[in-house]
Each structure stands twice: as C-alpha cells, then as structure tokens.
Amino acid sequence: MDAAVAMADAEGLEAVSIRRVAAALDARPMSLYSHFDRKDDLLALMNDQVAAEVIVPEPLPADWRDALRAIAHRTRDSSLRHPWVLQTLACHPRLGPNGLRHAEQSAAAVSALPLPPRRRGALLRAVDTYTLGHVTAELRERQGYLGGADRAGVQRYLTGVLESGQYPHLAQFHSQDLVLVGEDARESFAEGLEWLLAGIAAAIGATPS
C-alpha cells in the first residue's frame, strides 16, 4: 500500500491504477489481483492504511474535550498530508481494521457523557463535519480557487473589493483574514474547534474542562 499511497499523494487519486502500482513494485499486474479484485478494493485498502494515522496513541485523554481535540487535530493533519482521502470517504467509508479502531476510539472519547447513543453519535458527526469541512476549505485555497490565482493575487482582489465601499461589513476585515494559509489556518481551525466544543458542552450541561 505504501507505493499506492505515495503515488496518490504526489499525483492525485486519478494517477493510481493497479498497473502503475504493479510497475512501482516491479511486479506483474496479475500478481496484485490475488490481494484485491478491482481498483475500488485498492482504494479501500489505501484509505484504511491512512486511517491508522488518525488513531491517537493510548491512553486517550480522560476529558472528552481533550480526547476529541486530539482526534480532530490528527484527522486534519492526516487529511492535509493525503488530500485524496476526502474523495474516497463517500464511496469507501472507513470500515477496515484501522478505520474501525478510529471509530471505536472516537466512541470511547464520549462514552462517559450522560447522553443516549444517538446524541453521542450526533456529537461525533458535528466534530467530524467541522474538521473535514475546514480541511476542504484549506485545500481549496491552497490550490488557488478563483481560477488558479495565487495567494498574492487573491489578496489583491480582496483588497480591491473591500476598499470599493460596496461591502461595508466585509470591509471590517483585512484581506488576509479571509484566506486560510499556513499557521493562520491551524490557528483558525483550533479556534473554531474550541467554539464548537464549548457550544456542545453548554448544550449538554457539561462543566468546563
């Protein structure tokens, strides 16, 4: 799987094929079919290998907020290293051994909360949705959305827009406040995560950590 994951990291998911992976391993394509029947099976195995990176080393923090914070940051870091994973999640839910270990760890993080399973599941989905949504925004801006413009080009455009007077509320921001890059993106993620966890804690009546 290392060869396939490295290929996807370097060239994108579209570059991965059983034939190319076989070539990278100096093997015949047919020899790989003894391990998986089709490309979808290969993608599922790749996804599960990457899922191992999300698992927090034991012991998991005792406080549920600390545990979810650790899981969310590892999820973000892994997804930024392997952006193609976001393309696979819809078709290949994490049901392999590592994916299930990650799910079990997430469930363990909130197991002590006095909530029914349905609400604990909703809590985990909220954190996961925030995390993957933030990663998607970071990746989009890294790749230069707005027609492939670079960071400086985006900021020049935003500066002109904000100085036009047409958007007085947006004009209260600096152009760089609206772009997720580098450490700014990590700080933005961490701050938003704290707001989310604080809101959840308030909603369920949990005492501050």
Description:
This protein has 209 residues and is an all-alpha fold. The chain has one domain (2-143, 179-204): Orthogonal Bundle (Tetracycline Repressor, domain 2). The protein is built from eleven helices and no strands. It has helices at residues 2-11, 18-24, 29-32, 39-51, 64-81, 85-88, 97-109, 117-142, 145-148, 151-162, 182-204. The model has no long low-confidence stretch (mean pLDDT 85).
From the structure above, extract its key features.
209 residues; 0% strand; mainly alpha; Tetracycline Repressor, domain 2; 11 helices; flat
Largest sheet: none
- Strand count: 0
Total tally of structural domains: 1
Cα radius of gyration in angstroms? 20 Å
Q: Structural class of the secondary structure composition? A: mainly alpha
Average of per-residue pLDDT values: 85
Oligomeric state as shown: single chain
In CATH's first tier, which class applies? Mainly Alpha
CATH homologous superfamily name? Tetracycline Repressor, domain 2
| % residues in beta strands | under 5%
Q: Helicity level, as a percent range?
A: 55-70%
Task: Tell me the span between the first and last alpha carbons.
Answer: 40 Å
CATH architecture: Orthogonal Bundle
The outline comes out as flat
CATH topology: Tetracycline Repressor, domain 2
Give the low-confidence spans: none
List the total number of helices: 11
